[in-house]
Amino acid sequence: MSTIRPILVVAGIGNASGTGAATARLFAKNGYRVALIARNADQVNNAAAEINKSGGEAAAFPVKSYDYTDVTNVFQTIRQYQWPSQEKVEIRAALWNASHGVWKGFLDVTEEDIQASAQANIVAPFAFSRAAISAFKENDIDDHGRRGTLLFTGATASIRGNVVTSAFAAGKHALRALSQSLAKEFGKENIHVAHAIIDGGILTERSLARHADSKSQEEYKNNHDIRLSPESIAESYLYLTNQDRSAWTWELDREWHFIGLRRRFGGV
Ligand SMILES: *[C@@H]1O[C@H](CO)[C@@H](O)[C@H](O)[C@H]1NC(C)=O
Ligand SMILES: *[C@@H]1O[C@H](CO)[C@@H](O)[C@H](O)[C@H]1NC(C)=O
Ligand SMILES: *[C@@H]1O[C@H](CO)[C@@H](O)[C@H](O)[C@H]1NC(C)=O
């Protein structure tokens, strides 16, 4: 194992209360430098500052949009970024967590909705994957047979369409197809590609804010049967990244425990 500190690149940080940020925090605690990509400059700067403050090393890379050119360019900026300790930059892990959700009946879906879903769920992750894989190919193979790990956050809509998800599910199905194709093509080149189906609501400040009164907020926060925690998803991403090549998993399906509750609380 080389002594160079590895870098995790995460796209999709939102306002730092969800999966992307929890993954960045956990990897930072485990010796990774983390490069954070998001569209909101203030939020991504705050997220990086927070990780720095708690002893990690993070840098923020805001993007104007998740289009092919911006994603390609920001990855190039990350590759050229001078981290303070001047060690060689070695990107070992990358997570595509950005997304664009559309929840509308089919006849209400506009061309803009379809374009936005295709952009964030297909076109931009193609650019991200290309840049990540190109970076991994320059890495040496480590003691566990790896050059790098590319992770994708999926959703229930990755494998199942539903009444209001035509545009979203089409995008998420495509993202899964991309990740499966890459897993097959690059596994033999020591690059691990994995897709995680997050089959349910995730506890974030935003999802919590959707619960009107404090009683249902408390229940949502404390009842582990009705929502997923970003920290435990992050643990799964670290686990995937640490897998030995002989046991690589392509897909994790985080099935929700209680079907009845899924019906009650959504989960598209
Ligand atoms: C966090 O620390 C890194 C490295 O020490 C530095 O390059 C970066 O500018 C800092 N970022 C913020 C937002 O404080
Ligand atoms: C990260 O992925 C989760 C799970 O799909 C999603 O809820 C969240 O909105 C994503 N974050 C961003 C910034 O897109
Ligand atoms: C994140 O967004 C939610 C609602 O959208 C809000 O309640 C929360 O305060 C925000 N958190 C931060 C750190 O900005």
TrEMBL record:
Pfam families: adh_short
Matching InterPro entries: NAD(P)-bd_dom_sf, SDR_fam
Protein name: NAD(P)-binding protein
